[in-house]
Request: fold
Amino acid sequence: MIIAKHTVTIFNKYAATGQPPFPPSEGWNRTVIKFAQWEDKTDRNMTTSGITHIDKHIRVFIPKNSDTGGKEFIPPSEWARLPNDQKLLFWTIQADDYIALGEAPEIDSSYPMATMRSQFRNCLVKTLNDLSNQPVLPHWEIAGI
Reply:
């Protein structure tokens, strides 16, 4: 069962074209999603030499009927082909995007990604499982570290 009581902010990374004389840099497409589920998980494994190895994982579940502020989900391959100004109208999830727990501000020169990462619980996306077309509880499952 998905208990979707959290707000999360997804940051999709894209190459921002710099206007001359500025070089190209990266940009971040921000999408705030209300009614998601954030789970922190810690695995402890003991090696044969007695050393405990701790792995921390984060899983985020986004039900298909979550509030995405009017943005529609499109698969990463379709999102990547869009011009940058069109990317801002959609959201996606792909490896190396970030998800923050809560409503994080826009990323720009006055509020860089490093600041967001220091002020919010967040994770780097590793995998997406798109279950948005299944008949019961359609949703997306994201695993991150």
Summary: The chain has one domain: 6-144. The radius of gyration is 17 Å. Residues 6-144 form one domain. The helical segments are 76-81, 84-87, 113-119.
